[in-house]
Amino acid sequence: MTKKYNVGEVEIPEFQGTHLWNRLGWAKDNLEPIQTEYCVVWEDPEEPDAPARVTHPDPNWMACARHGGILPPVDSYWELNKDEATEGFVRHTRGPELLHNMKPIEAMTEEQAIEYLVMKDIPARVWDTGDERLNKPRFVICTKAQLPQERTWRSSWRISEDLNINGETK
Amino acid sequence: MAISKIKGSAIQDATIPEEKLEDEAGSFRMILDGTDGSATNTGDFVLLDATASSTNVGEQFLFEPATDDGSAVLSGGDLKFDNVEILMDKKSLMKSEGGAVTTNIGQGILKAWVVDASSEAATVGDSLNKSSFSDDNTGRTTITLVNPMSTAKDYCVSYACVSGYPYRGRADTASTYKLETVNDGGNYADGVANGMVAGDLA
């Protein structure tokens, strides 16, 4: 089995111009996965009756984020999303430009990686509201231990309106 | 130019005048002719070109029997690689199991997979090309890819369960696919999911 490396133990090859998928294969072979205790709980305003969703970062992806030099900038994903939302979209043609040839981003802290993941994997309508008057947040970053341990009422999970944010109870 | 001459089982140093190693165009060229003058090549250890000089002209690397189409052919043995990076483009082909047709390697391999994804435990066993999984509701999971697929819906998602029953695995967008699990009553239920994705990458 190939030795796997922790953050700071290995130099990441120059990956700009290498297919992103190939980079992920390299990372899986060489980087020790990083399990995080953090997850993101969010509600989609387009589905007001749906329960809160819980997004968990992938340990292999987190290793890529923490080491740096592998993942494309998050705006590349936004551009792809725009292309996909265009009427008449058939298939992505800007993968090489936006993903494979784009300069990879530098190493991130765990907190920065979670913020990147929010902006990549959660719809912008959830985190980019631009409206401070919302009576409760649409997403919350918390630890797995803070999730309800009982899933019997999973379809009723909501973000609490009494959530304590920055030490202040709204 | 000094090279090594292989004679029998021993390796000896030998010197060959450089002009003897150049072809008419002046570029370096070395031909190992492994024939032993007998009717067969029995006993040859190295055999790169056993044919007359008028055939196979233009081959860069040739194992007999071969053609002069620029390919390299190894016949009758295994070719083993140890810690060698092999770079193949998207046109690379391999023989299918039956040998009658070829398989495009780039098209044929899985582009993403996930094993033991459990909303209940909030963990995933292992994965490739996945940035996150979302527990959407009981028995409903969304997997998000790092390298999206090229189309929004036209790719293949295959799904199996370790516990529960697979209801469906389906492409949602180019970068997300959904795995849904039911119980024996046909209602959504939490399970442990294994999913695979095939198709074209963006």
Mind explaining what this structure looks like?
The complex is a heterodimer of chains A (170) and B (202). Chain A contains 6 helices and 5 strands; from the N terminus they run αββαααααβββ. Chain A is an alpha+beta fold. Chain A has one domain (20-169). In chain A, a hairpin with a 2-residue loop joins strand 4 and strand 5. With 202 residues, chain B is an all-beta fold. Helix content of chain B is 2%, strand content 34%. In chain B, strand 7 and strand 8 (140-144) form a beta hairpin. Mean pLDDT of chain B is 73; it is low at 1-11 and 41-47. Classes of the chains: A alpha+beta (170), B mainly beta (202). The interface between A and B is large, with 39 and 35 residues.
Low-pLDDT segments, ≥5 res of chain A: none
User: Describe the biggest sheet of chain B?
Assistant: 4 strands, antiparallel
Q: How many separate helices of chain B?
A: 1
- Largest sheet, spatial ordering of strands of chain B: 6-5-12-9
What ranges of chain B have pLDDT less than 50 throughout 5 or more consecutive residues?
Answer: 1-11, 41-47
Largest interface: A-B, 39 and 35 residues
Name the helicity range of chain A.
Answer: 25-40%
- SS element count, helices of chain A: 6
Oligomer: heterodimer
**Rg measurement of chain B, Å:** 28 Å
| Order of SSEs of chain B | EEEEHEEEEEEEE
Instruction: Quote the distance from N terminus to C terminus of chain B.
Output: 50 Å
Q: What share of the residues of chain A does DSSP label as strand, in percent? A: 5-15%
Q: Sheet bearing the most strands of chain A, described?
A: 3 strands, antiparallel
What is the arithmetic mean of pLDDT of chain A? 92
Strand order of the largest sheet of chain A: 2-1-3
Average pLDDT value of chain B? 73
The percent of residues in helical segments of chain B reads under 10%
